[in-house]
Amino acid sequence: MTDTPAKAPFDLSTPLGRARTYLDYLWNDHAYLRLGFSNAHWISEELVRANQPWPHQLAAWKARGIKTIINLRGGFDASFHALEKDACERLGLRLVDFTITSREVPSRERVLGAKRLFETIEYPALMHCKSGADRAGIMSVLYMHFRKGKTIREAMDQLHLRYLHVKQGKTGVLDYTFERYLEEGEPAGMSFLEWVESPMYDPTGMKATFRSQMWGSLLTERLLRRE
Q: Residue 146 burial by CB count (10 A; 0-12/13-18/19+): exposed, middle or buried?
């Protein structure tokens, strides 16, 4: 499942428009923090997860054999998307937009859409959100489970502090999604997919019972300002 992006307001056809776009990207998207840090990790021989790449970083990934870029952020009217779309078009990379959130239990449609995505994209691929920690984390869990055959318990290692994911904050709802499966679905003899497709999978109810820790929320919401 992919999203249809709206027309972005940033004009890259003129030097002034391109400069304005880069300035917005540099400051409002905190891109200055990512000039020397990509939070990039190859999680298999065909997929790398990372934070939001700069256009010159996309060129470097293309040189390393990457064919598909998966944007998990949405942001179709944002400067980062205008620059990423332009770079992918110039470099001959396929850009796939698959929006997912970091503070919600994913809908059934989103989980099934992720499965279809990993079955149909051209590899090698790079998958990114803004920081490469949370949305890239949950999608990496789904990738490892659906495409690589890892158990959910094994695949949950993709939601780890080594990738800068903080489960004690509001983004811990992503971990909680899989923990609920291990508490409910697995003991009932259900596969993860069977559980997601069953009435037991209740994103609204799970979100309502999830509780983050105060210090974790302060870290992710106030200090790190995670998207």
A: buried
